[in-house]
Amino acid sequence: MSDQKGLDDVRLSINAVNITVDDAFRDRIAQALVKLRRYYSGDLITAEVFLRIEAHGGPNDKSLRIIYGVPGTGAFAEEEGDNWDTMLHTVVGKLKHQLERKFTNSQNSYRQH
């Protein structure tokens, strides 16, 4: 399954393998990504979310990957586990850390204040 929708100048694409993403989780993903928007105010931001449930069905059989792309650079984070919301929180935290390192320089004109 693949889903795309606009999110405040962010092109969001959700790709799911062996899972159907309901509207509530799709909204939680979008709201989590909104928080990253403050680190870059330029154009052409893309967010690609990949959700997968592995066929083995054991513990930690779920994986969540997000590629948050901005011109000239991007951020990538992934997590495996058994709880989608926990993994989403962890992945967004990793992306936030990467974006803070790249864009908190006071001379960066793309940083929103």
Strand fraction: 35-45%
Summing up helix and strand content along with how strands pair, one would put the structural category as alpha+beta
Low-confidence stretches: none
Order of helices and strands: EEHEEEH
Radius of gyration: 14 Å
Number of helices: 2
Q: CATH superfamily assignment?
A: Ribosome hibernation promotion factor-like
| CATH T-level fold name | Double Stranded RNA Binding Domain
Distance between the termini: 36 Å
Number of separate domains: 1
Shape: globular
Can you give the mean pLDDT?
83
Which strand order spans the largest sheet, edge to edge or round the barrel?
1-2-3-4-5
Protein name: Ribosome-associated translation inhibitor RaiA
Pfam families: Ribosomal_S30AE
Organism: Spirosoma fluviale
Keywords:
single chain, 113 residues, alpha+beta, Double Stranded RNA Binding Domain, five-stranded mixed sheet, 2 helices, RHF/RaiA, Ribosome-associated translation inhibitor RaiA
Describe, in plain words, how this protein is organized in 3D.
With 113 residues, the protein is of the alpha+beta class. It is 28% helix and 36% strand. Strand 1 (2-7) and strand 2 form a beta hairpin. Helix 1 (23-34) packs parallel to helix 2 (84-103). It is globular, with a radius of gyration of 14 Å.
Question: How are the secondary structure elements laid out?
Answer:
Elements: E1 2-7, E2 10-17, H1 23-34, E3 45-53, E4 62-70, E5 73-81, H2 84-103
Parallel strand pairs: 2-3
Antiparallel strand pairs: 1-2, 3-4, 4-5
Helix pairs in contact: 1-2
